[in-house]
Write a structure and sequence with these properties.
Layout: H1 9-21, E1 27-31, H2 38-50, H3 63-69, E2 84-87, H4 106-114, E3 127-131, H5 139-150, E4 156-162, H6 170-174, E5 177-180, H7 186-195, H8 210-216, H9 219-237, H10 242-249, H11 257-275, H12 280-301, H13 306-318
Parallel strand pairs: 1-4, 1-5, 2-3, 3-4
Length: 320
């Protein structure tokens, strides 16, 4: 049931103990980075709760178990089991008229949750609401959920998934039990990538997230990283700072910049390791370059302008 959730033993143990003891909490908050198994764990929990055999663990063979995990091919892409209910911004586009460009609307909460909680499950023991990116609940939608989260009724459970728990209302956090999911070890991410036929070397850039690793392993992402490093090296080697300024001004977007810098730092680290015996002076220079790039990553994290951070990085690298 939980065997396909890798690298999250503490979280899995928390959930299996709850199932085996018969004391499954009515409202969980699964928090941790994207792409580390939170949603898989939520569906595994839901599967166990709706299983037709009624035991503490899912049999994984009955119709309820199979439908709990089967997502429809047509829009909206939701579970086939009527008692496993998904909420997500924009998921019911066309069926719920509210504009959900910025968050999960109060209308979605009313239609998908509040209109159902007064009744029992459609088929059996339990009903499970899984909220993807729960931090995207609008304030009005979150407030509408509060009473239900506190007293959801017999057999009703909520699992809120979030990679940004600090963005949830304090009142939502106080009514949900946290289960923390950690970044996955690089070795595990690399193995998963290899099993998928993708380059395992990008695992070190993925911050413990399989979803991010898969994105980074795409051909477009690889080409973008290589172009970034080549442009940076050309700016460092140029006769004046003009190419460096052009390089910096071409990258004003903060999103994705940290990953590009991490790849640049990784390439410098690899170069330093290769030179440490034959060319110790070059290895020392690569180590100092590595330190400067890591410092630039910290600047970006501190909301320094990306253009200014990159221009400063190129200037410092040119001084070595």
């Amino acid at each position: 049931m939980f065997s396909h959730i890798l690298g999250q033993e503490p979280a899995v143990q928390t959930l299996t103990r709850a199932l085996d003891s018969g004391h499954v909490h009515h409202a969980y908050r699964f928090e941790g980075p994207a792409g580390v198994g939170k949603e898989r764990a939520a569906f595994a929990l839901a599967q166990a709760l709706v299983c037709e055999l009624g035991g503490p663990r899912a049999c994984e063979k009955c119709s309820a178990c199979q439908r709990a995990l089967r997502i429809s091919d047509e829009e909206p892409r939701v579970p086939a089991h009527p008692d496993v209910i998904l909420l997500q911004r924009g998921l019911y586009r066309g069926r719920i008229s509210a504009n959900e460009a910025t968050g999960i609307s109060i209308e979605q909460v009313r239609r998908m949750v509040l209109e159902r909680v007064g009744y029992g499950p459609h088929e059996g023991r339990a009903r499970v609401f899984i909220v993807r990116d729960a931090d995207e609940l609008t304030v009005s939608a979150a407030n509408a959920l509060l009473k239900t989260l506190e007293e959801p009724g017999q057999g009703t459970h909520f699992v809120l998934l979030t990679s940004r728990p600090n963005r949830l209302l304090d009142t939502i956090r106080s009514r949900t039990l946290p289960v923390r999911f950690s970044p996955l070890p690089d070795a595990l991410v690399a193995q998963i990538l290899q099993d998928k036929g993708l380059d395992p070397k990008v695992a070190i850039l993925a911050q413990g997230s399989v979803a991010l690793a898969v994105d980074l392993a795409s051909e477009d992402a690889i080409n973008e990283r290589e172009e970034f490093v080549a442009s940076a090296r050309a700016a460092i080697a140029a006769r004046d700072l003009a190419p460096g300024i052009k390089f910096a001004e071409a990258r004003r977007e903060r999103d994705g910049l940290r990953g590009l810098l991490a790849y640049f730092a990784q390439s410098l680290a690899f170069a330093g390791r290769e030179q440490v015996l034959a060319q110790p002076e070059q290895a020392e220079r690569a180590a100092e370059q590595h330190r400067i790039v890591l410092s630039t990553m910290q600047d970006v994290d501190r909301n320094v302008s990306p253009a200014l951070a990159l221009e400063s990085m190129i200037y410092r690298l040119r001084q070595l």
